[in-house]
Structures are given as C-alpha cells and as structure tokens.
Amino acid sequence: MWFIENYDNRASLGIKVKEKVFEEQSKFQLVEIYETEFFGKLLTLDGLVMLSEKDEFVYHEMIVHVPMCSHPNPERVLIIGGGDGGAVRETLKYNSVKEVVLCEIDELVVKACKDLIPSVSGSLVDDRVKVVFEDGFKYLDQYENYFDVILTDSSDPIGPGVELFKRKYFELIRKALKPDGIAVSQSESPWYYEDVMKDHYKEISSVFDITKSYSAFIPLYPSGFWTFAYMSNVHDPMDFDAERAVLISESCRYYNEDLHSGCFAIPNFLKRITGTE
Ligand code: SPD
Q1: What is the pLDDT of residues 260-270, one digit of tens each?
Q2: Which of 19, 33, 244, 270 could anchor a disulfide with 266, C-beta 3.0 to 4.6 Å?
C-alpha cells in the first residue's frame, strides 16, 4: 500500500505504508496518520505531508534554532500552527524561555499527535507551554510589543493556512513582536510554489527591514528543497550567538553553528524569487 502526495498534477511522491492508523475529518481538514515502512509515523492534512517521524527533525530544528540563536535573550515565544508539537519541543531547549504559546486552529491535530506521535508531541505538556485553539490571525491581534520570537509553522497556502501568507498577517506579527523581535515563517519550495513565494516575500519585505530566505533539505516535502522566511527590524541572523548555537547543536541532528550562517547561502533563482539579491 502506498500513500501518494500529488503535487498539483505536476508530479507525485509515493511513500510505502503498512497501514492507516488514524483518519478523521475536522471542521478544517482531513487529518490522517499512517504507519510507514521506512519513515515511522506519517502525518498528513488534506492529503499533504506535514511530517514523518524520520525526517521531522530537519524542519523543526531549522524553523526554531535559526531565530532563537539570532535573538539575544528569547523569553516569550509564539508558535502559530505547529499542532504536532515539534517546534515546541525544540523551543523548550532554551533555558531563557519562560513562556511558549502554541496557537493551533485545529484541536484534532493536537489530539491525534498526542495520542499517536509522542516523540514529536511529548513537550506539549511542559509547564512553560500554553496551548490555545484559535485562528492564529485573530489571536495575534490582541498582542502588542509582547513576543521575542514568533514562528509560523503553517500548513501549505491552501485551506486554513492561506491567510498566513498575506501582508496583513505580517503587520500583525510586527505589532505582536517587541521592537527587536524576530519571526520565521515556513515558506514552501521554489520548485512548486514560485508564484506564492514571490508574493509572500514581497509582503514580508514591505513590513520588515531585514527579510532573508534560508533553506534546508527535507526529503518528504515537495522537491526536498524547502525554505524559511526570516524577518526582523533589528537582528541580522549573521550576527547570531555562536556559543549558544554550539551548545544547542549538541542536542540536534541537523542544526549547527556552521549551518546557521550556511543555510542563508541560497542559489540565484531563489534570490530572484524572494527578491533578496
Ligand atoms: N508541504 C508541507 C508543508 C508543511 C509545513 N508545516 C509542517 C508542520 C510540521 N510541524
């Protein structure tokens, strides 16, 4: 039996599965979990891969540690999306962190991951973590000058995730961040989402003075070549805390101090798409 993710009728990815262990339609999307032959558990939303137990560390380490090691003292962190808990797990590695708010629109994602993928969701019960089930867009609006780091660990720009790629959303992020805050949004693959990415980075750079794109290799995401958008009005990620990065990387399998700056070295076609030449 194979799980097939179809990339808009242009290509597809097949993953050999043993069985489907969870399937439920929420108000927002179809949530499914498979037991695979090679990648451990696989979480999909509306038929699109969100994570596998085998390769999730790349995505979660990179969405979290690049901003966290670029901030001088991250204490309050907001994660929009990310109901599987992987980004929370990585964020809690920092002693400076006092509060992590996870704002996930779909309670079913959290429940399914808590029940079936504890290696990823296990940190959601930590005392420093508050989980709220709300629309990230609306939730952000109540904050001003509060968070040090905001991460958008969204699904793809279709379905409930679509608003998280628009200008108004980045304005809300800027308002909710302290003036020297840092935000990172997952920003898709240039091979399959070129037009979405062009708009996404155009909107971000109209709101933040420092807008950069970085990449990581994530085998089960479309093309494997995945990008993240870094934004801040103060902190350039090249001026990161290398000592902290070395310490954190001891508990990491992908992120390290060389990759921190290395991941911002991007090919010309991506520089052109993101307008970061
Ligand atoms: N096409 C895959 C995009 C998924 C990005 N978010 C993944 C959620 C993992 N926490």
Answers
A1: 999 999 999 99
A2: 270
